[in-house]
Design a protein that fits this description.
It contains 22 helices and 18 strands. The protein is α+β, with helices and mostly antiparallel strands. The longest helix is centred in the C-terminal third of the chain and has 21 residues. Bound molecules: flavin-adenine dinucleotide. The site of flavin-adenine dinucleotide has 37 residues, from strand 3, helix 5, strand 11 and helix 16.
Length: 560
């Protein structure tokens, strides 16, 4: 269908706007991945009814043989290509950005917040903190990401070690299904599920077929339940039924499904009351060989976070910090500038550690947090490490800035090279570090003429973010992306790990799902997709049907 006709057709059924101006399309053609896809249109629904109208219209056109599809987009910070499409972008950020109620815990019920997808996390947190609560699975991109992707990617972050990832907090979700109908997915008792299965609608069909799929394949699904502490790969078929409560909740499946099964328009998320005080044990690690022993001794002390960044990130941060400080207020910038002097000296004298480890303890009193940090330092004393304890969150702020901003620092400040997230999010069990890490480093060394890279990540969870910087205008460098990733994933899978803990599959990892889960599970993912979206309207090629040819074709081919 000609774009003008499609534009008019969509504008005619919704209250929100439809845009096809070049600048808007260019903006929507990128996220923070290494891909670009130019959409035909961007639509801005005002509410769930608008979303329904858009989906219904597209479904009608698909029925007439038109190849039109929809990709949801919230803040567009995805690193996997999740919101990119050559079809129509459904952008939630402009209108569907309202918070619903935020409630304190009452009796058995946890505190919760209701939100639309277009709410930025930073605004969501302001509203929840006003009630003394937070969503503890927020990502490092907390200043730029929105709830839409946090839920649809099953995001995790620095506190996931203690609190788990987003799926754990998703209680209820209002969604628009692939025929434009609306449904609320939440925890159902067996009697409620039976009632749903009687509905003669797409929703009823989804319940009937998903229940059958789970019953027929219980063993297969259970045996593929991820064995590491976080996972965003595939469809979370193992999370729908809760054996403990004997309930069935499709919201757990929609979480992490990257807009491929349904578009969510409102979600109820459980919240926690954060501990008030934090003390951080900082380790300047010069010898990576003892990392496994450190992790083994630290994890039993139950830190809230156990994060890290490497020497490349450290050096870049020190170089780029003056520019970053310029964007902050004078007083904060001046304080942080002074705080960074010891790190600047380390860079100047060649004393930069290979890895900086941040082990943070959260408690109700600063004395208790400090006691735990001190106990952990004592437990490591015989390893002869350079360590220090930051008792005050203002003192540890500089490390958090570098950790959270590590990817952005690269993306915005290294010119001529492109950040290339393609082995950016795998997870391995921390117990395998002694065998795994040397093999990984040897592999990265083999390709070192093609890129420089930084490593940051959640050491405690075994979740590593390796971000190469590459000149993507060179064909041989782009080929490295296709050659190296399967070799890294082979190592990861051998150790019982997963290809993605929180950044999700998108364009970059969907083709690796057969390698990770095997043909039988992939067939179940395909069946799931068919049950929800028989015409393949929602985000085709993500989670199901994505190919290596997609990766090759849509990679950015310019310099950074
Ligand atoms: C500097 C940096 C650090 C990062 N750190 C982390 C991290 O620590 N942890 C982490 O998990 N991620 C991280 N990310 C990746 C990304 O920021 C997060 O996954 C974030 O949650 C995405 O949110 P978003 O609103 O920008 O999603 P988008 O990019 O807009 O979308 C992400 C996916 O969700 C789908 N989607 C969006 N809205 C909806 C909806 N309403 N219904 C259905 N599907 C929808 C999209 O189609 C897409 O597939 C980081 C990114 C950057 C740039």
């Amino acid at each position: 269908m000609d774009v003008d006709n499609l534009k008019n057709a969509l504008a005619g059924v919704m209250r929100g706007e439809v845009s096809d101006d070049a600048e808007t399309l260019k903006g929507a053609s990128r996220d923070t991945s290494l891909f670009e896809r130019m959409p035909e249109l961007v639509v801005y629904p005002e509410d769930a009814n608008d979303v329904s109208a858009i989906v219904r219209e597209v479904q009608g056109l698909r029925g007439k043989g038109q190849e039109i599809s929809l990709a949801a987009r919230s803040a567009g910070t995805d690193m996997s290509g999740g919101p990119l499409t050559t079809g129509v972008v459904v952008s939630f950020i402009k209108h569907m950005n309202k918070m619903g109620p935020v409630r304190q815990a009452q009796g058995e019920e946890a505190g919760y917040a209701v939100t639309e997808p277009g709410v930025f996390y930073r605004d969501f947190e302001k509203a929840t903190l006003a009630k003394g609560l937070i969503l503890p699975s927020y990502p490092a991109s907390r200043e730029i990401a929105a709830m839409g992707g946090i839920v649809a990617n099953n995001s995790g972050g620095e506190r996931t070690l203690e609190y788990g990832q987003t799926e754990k907090y998703v209680e209820e979700m209002d969604v628009v299904l692939s025929d434009g109908s609306q449904a609320t997915f939440k925890s159902l008792t067996p009697a409620e599920l039976a009632e749903k299965k009687n509905l003669q609608t797409l929703e009823g069909n989804i319940y009937r077929e998903m229940d059958a799929l789970l019953t027929e394949n219980t063993k297969l699904i259970e045996s593929h339940r991820p064995k590491v502490s976080k996972n965003s790969a595939g469809y979370a078929l193992w999370s729908i039924r809760d054996a403990k409560t004997n309930t069935f909740n499709l919201a757990k499946l929609i979480c992490g499904s990257q807009g491929t099964l349904a578009l969510w328009t409102s979600a109820k998320l459980a919240l926690v009351k954060p501990k008030e005080h934090r003390a951080m044990l900082v380790i300047f690690l010069y010898n990576l060989d003892i990392l496994p022993e450190i992790v083994k001794r630290v994890l039993p002390q139950n830190p809230e976070s156990f994060e890290s960044f490497d020497d490349h990130t450290f050096t870049l941060a020190v170089k780029l910090i003056p520019g970053m400080l310029g964007q902050m207020g004078f007083a904060r910038a001046a304080k942080l500038g002074i705080d960074f002097i010891p790190e600047a000296l380390m860079v100047a004298t060649g004393g930069v550690p290979k890895l900086l480890l941040m082990i943070e303890f959260a408690e109700d009193t600063i004395d208790e947090a400090d006691r735990k940090a001190t106990k952990t330092r004592d437990a490591l004393a015989d390893l002869n490490l350079k360590m220090k304890i930051e008792k005050d969150e203002r003192e540890s702020e500089k490390y958090w800035i570098v950790r959270r901003e590590s990817f952005n620092l690269l993306r915005k400040n290294v010119h001529g090279l492109h950040t290339a997230p393609f082995i950016d999010d795998f997870v391995v069990p921390p117990a395998c570090y002694p065998e795994f890490l040397p093999k990984l480093t040897a592999l990265l060394e083999e390709y070192k003429s093609h890129f420089i890279y930084t490593i940051a990540g959640h050491v405690g969870d075994g979740n590593f973010h390796i971000i190469p910087l590459m000149d993507l205008s060179k064909e041989e460098n782009r080929q490295v992306i296709l050659d190296l990733a399967p070799r890294v994933y082979e190592l990861v899978i051998k150790e019982g790990g997963t290809t993605t803990g929180e950044h999700n599959d998108g364009i970059i990892r969907t083709p690796y799902l057969p390698m990770l889960f095997g043909a039988e599970m992939v067939a179940l993912f395909e069946r799931t997709k068919k049950i929800f979206d028989p015409l393949n309207i929602f985000n085709p090629g993500k989670k199901v049907g994505g190919t290596f040819a997609d990766i090759k074709r849509d990679m950015i081919k310019g310099r950074g």
